[in-house]
TrEMBL record, chain A:
GO MF term list: single-stranded DNA binding
Homology family: Belongs to the RNA polymerase beta chain family.
The UniProt record lists the keyword Manganese: no
Name of this chain's protein: DNA-directed RNA polymerase III subunit RPC3
Quaternary data: Component of the RNA polymerase III (Pol III) complex consisting of 17 subunits.
Lineage: Eukaryota, Fungi, Dikarya, Ascomycota, Pezizomycotina
GO cellular-component term (any): RNA polymerase III complex
Region (Disordered): 131-163, 251-296, 394-427
Organism: Aspergillus nanangensis
Record's keyword annotation contains Kinase: no
Automatic annotation (TrEMBL), chain B:
Name assigned to this protein: DNA-directed RNA polymerase III subunit
Bias type Low complexity, positions: 75-85
Biased amino acid composition, Acidic residues: 176-209, 220-230
Subcellular location: Nucleus
UniProt keyword list: Nucleus
Source organism, top-level taxon: Eukaryota
Ranges of compositional bias, category Basic residues: 1-11
GO biological process, one term: transcription by RNA polymerase III
Record-stated family: Belongs to the eukaryotic RPC7 RNA polymerase subunit family.
Classification via PANTHER family: DNA-DIRECTED RNA POLYMERASE III, DNA-DIRECTED RNA POLYMERASE III SUBUNIT
Amino acid sequence: MTSQYAAELCTLLVDDNFGELFATIFATLIQYDRLTLPRLRAYSRLPDNQLHHGLAAMIQQHLVYHYTSYEEGLTYYEPNLQSAYSLVRSGKILELIEDRLGKYAATLMSTIMFLGHAQVSYLETLPELQPQQTVTTEEDEQLDEDHEPKPEVNGINGEGEDPLPQQPFLLHPTLKVLAAHGYIHRVREAHFQSYADNVLDCERQIKARPHVKQLKGKKLEEKVLELTAEMLRERLDGDLTRGLMFNGVPRGAKRRRGAGGTDGPNKKARVDYAVDDDEEEEEENEWSDDEMGGDTVPMDAGITVRVNYEKLDVALRNRRFLDLAEQDCSPATIEVYDNLLRRIEYQTKECRDSAEIPREGEEGEQYSAPVSLAVLAEDVDPLLDLTGSIGPMEVSQPVNKRGKRLLDDDTNGADHNESNGVSSGANRPYEVDQHLSLLAQPPLNLTSKRMVHGLISWTVEFRHLARKLRHLELERMIEARYGDVALRVVRVLHAKGKLDEKRLQEISLLPFKDLRQVLASMQSGGFVDLQEVPRDAQRQPSRTIYLWFYDPDRIRSSILEDTYKAMSRCLQRLRFERSRLKEFLEKTERSDVKGNEERYLSEAELTLLDQWRAKEALLLGEVARLDEMVAVMRDY
Amino acid sequence: MSRFGAKKGKKLPGAEFTWDADPNGEPDTAPTPLFPKFTVPRARPLNPREQLQVDLYRQLREQFHDGPYYSVLKGASSSSKKGSAQRASFDPFHGMPSYSGRYQKKKRDIPYLRGRPYAVMKFFPRDDLWQTIEPNFKPGQSLDGWVPQGARTGVKRGFEVDEEEEEDAVKRPKGEDEEAGEEDLLDGDEDPEEEIVDDNFEEDEDEMGGDYNAEQYFDGGDDEFGDDGFGDGGGGGDEDTY
């Protein structure tokens, strides 16, 4: 990832978020990659004091790896591009969490981001995590009703005024929810060293073991490899989900109610179905469950937590699939798919097994954890109208098999079912299955069916879908740049492999002129390329075959670079725009003006401020969009 | 296809691209237009979700900016050291502190680390930064049960440049001694001093580019009533000759 534009982008992001000092250190580290403190001081030309403090703060924010080598005792510093890059994703992540787990969770998450990593005991003391500011009133009320009499909580810090005792109570459940989802994880010492350093360190330790020392040659290599992988897993493991999952669902996972789910009937339905209050919408309620009585203990105060970006990538990827499905499926199907993906997400730790995206065609099939149909049928909101959006049900008339009659009857049957949407409880799994089968249809194949121990289960083929996403993205780009003719040519090339011009023309049914123009312009853009295959040793042009080809891998990496570049240009533009308005913006940031702009700023200035905000939002939004492309090309 | 059809007026390869065939095309020799037609692509307006994401990003960034770590490089100010480069680049028109600057957002040039506990010290490199984070920390002692493994000798590598060696000479032996735990009693007093000395040294070095100071070479010689009279004032460096 240490390409020029990626480096530039990361430096700009650090600058945008943390200021010039961090950016200077970061840029120096990127340029020289691995430096000891004296070297870093010499290259960055920063005074000692600033450098020390800056480095310490950057380590706190996980922007810098450090490694103290065993033999020399010297400490080396390295830039952590991955976490610098994930700064750009913070908005997306917070939005996701707010959407799923509520406002307070988002506040907590942003606080953890703000602190880099933080101990739970420290989080307890922070004023901004006090509930009265952030929690919506209804949640607060709910909390009062439900948990006032808990002696345990009051025992912890019962003294003080009224809102205080609640605070750790809301904090700890929310922390637990985040941990159970895997959105935060425990910080281990190894997280501060780069991956390569960790590997080397493990290898060194393993090779020093006596029983490994006896081995030789290939056996030794294999053994070391195996043990290293094991040790690495052990060291880097910050998983906090253990013990927090309940029936494969993180505690506090908010069940999403159907779109039209008004609260009153919802509750009645719940009683009818005798679903336990595990299904309550408020996340807090889940802790009052008897079966989890032991779990009301707060989170261990000594644990240090930070944001787990890998897991969040999984969540964001699932959301992306959902968007993909939304294009041509009914809302009910989306809802079912959402449930499936949610279930899978709980069991998926990261997007890929391998560090790099495998090459096109070599990725094999990698299925997600299977989710059985029965579980899924339970998950799906019982009020969701599943029958309305799929075709007529065969179950409703098993007898009638004649063509025209069937249609009429079916329509009636469906209507009947719809009218009291809940009544179809018995064949609920079947309906869910139908929806999932709909999703499994080509061309997207969003799901796939499998039998696990004789039970019908549904999985998602991630690699296939990630590839599909990439192709869609590339095709969209090609169409936007070169038009639909080019898209057609590219598709033909992709389907057929390498083709000479004549064959290509025959298959794509395009006139020569168009074809050549399009091919030439695409070649100059780097999307297709030409291979020469000489028929004799002289390599005469007349006796050479020219084959056009389209290599998605190559294009992916070049597009990725272009995207980094575009993002960094956006940020640079933003910086320039800011410098143009510098005086004005400084005025708005004055401690007396900030917060009561209406009072101190004139009419024109207020409009200017609004304009500036809109402009900034547009540029940042563009960066976020480009980041989505980066995610597709690099992370998913 | 037509090429192999053996038509009588066989075209040359590439003939279909001649400008004659395309009445709208410009000849190759035409000057490139100064302002070619270009449709500026416009970004879609943000949808509500994106707007929310951007707002959250800005909110977090704002939080970072107001937080203790946000720091800018020191700009020129009238209070900077005389003769330094910063002083020279001071802007006399806008740089003067004024009354209206009272409400201006203060920007720190060094991250403020004291504001919060750093309970897990081992997350930070021990030799370089522990003292920065925890001013009370003495390099010799072990903190939360963690003892440095093995003897760490300050081995000087062969390829270090001269300017560093001097720093090393100031720092390293002290570091060794302290690690051996011999000077435990004095440590508390010495540490801040050491830092200050080091700092000064660094700045001086920037100015002079090393121990040798060519500008003062002759000054030192002029001063005939000087301490030694041997004219090696260049080594003296800091002494004021006037």
